[in-house]
Amino acid sequence: MNILFLCTGNSCRSILAEATFNHLAPAGWRAMSAGSQPTGQVHPRSLALLAREGIDTAGYHSKSWEHLPVTPDLVITVCGSAAGETCPAYLGPVLRCHWGVDDPAHVTGSDAQIDAAFETAYRILRARIEAFLALPLDALQQDRARFSAELERIGILMA
């Protein structure tokens, strides 16, 4: 199954989710990420955080949803509500859900405060991904409605 983590800039949250999912995922499950308006670069704090967590960062880059290598089976939007952010709507015929996370790239303050915002975003996404991977995935692939409900529940309960 191919999962797309989607946001606007594809520099922080969607990259964190893609790398974390791929680090934890079972064989046959693969994540990718993209943005509707990619910034063109991955935020250095995202890469540093992933490296500290022991997650490989090679090959991750900011990219447009118009250049996906495969059509996703599932799209998870990770846009938050900070700064009136608008979340892009993927238009393909796929299962969709929303796991909103505020964008740490918009946080201002000391280095410690900014690092804490990146850490918070990562911890929220990792907890959701771990909950996702704990689901009975084989059974849920056969029941779209239940799969969708479980994904939405994860996004709501783990906010």
Description:
With 159 residues, this protein is of the alpha/beta class. The chain has five helices and four strands; from the N terminus they run E-H-E-H-E-E-H-H-H. The chain has helices at residues 13-24, 44-52, 111-133, 137-140, 144-157; strands at residues 2-7, 30-35, 74-77, 95-98. Strands 2-1-3-4 form a four-stranded parallel sheet. Helix 1 links the parallel strand 1 (2-7) and strand 2. Helix 1 (13-24) packs across helix 3 (111-133). The longest helix is centred in the last third of the chain and has 23 residues, at 111-133. The protein is globular, with a radius of gyration of 15 Å.
Poorly predicted runs of 5 or more residues: none
Largest sheet: number of strands, sense, barrel closure: 4 strands, parallel
For the record, give the distance between the C-alpha atoms at the N and C termini, rounded to a whole number. 25 Å
Order of helices and strands: EHEHEEHHH
Q: What structural category do the secondary elements indicate?
A: alpha/beta
Spatial order of strands in the largest sheet: 2-1-3-4
Radius of gyration: 15 Å
Which shape, going by the Cα principal axes? Answer: globular
Mean pLDDT: 91
Question: What is the percentage of strand-forming residues?
Answer: 5-15%
In short:
With 159 residues, the protein is of the alpha/beta class. 39% of the residues lie in helices and 13% in strands.
Q: Which key features would you list for this structure?
A:
4-stranded parallel β-sheet, 159 residues, alpha/beta, 4 strands
